[in-house]
Amino acid sequence: MSRYLFAFLFILFLLTDVCRAQGKLDLHLLRAIRQQQSASLAPDRSFGSTETANADTRMIVLAVLNPQASLPFEQLQLLGVGIGRQVGRVVTLSVPLNQLEAVSLLQEVESLNANRRHQISCLNARTEMYIDFLHDDAEAQSLGFPHGYTGRGVLLGIVDTGIQYDHLNFRDAQTGCSRLLGAALYRPEQGLADSIREYYTEPSQLDTLTTDDPLNGHGTLTAGAAAGSYYSLRQQGMAPDASLMLCGTSELEDDRLIDALCCTFARADELGIPCVVNLSIGNPVGWKDGLSPLALVCDSLTEGGNAPGRVIIFSAGNDGDK
Question: Residue 273 pLDDT more than 80?
Answer without folding.
Answer: yes
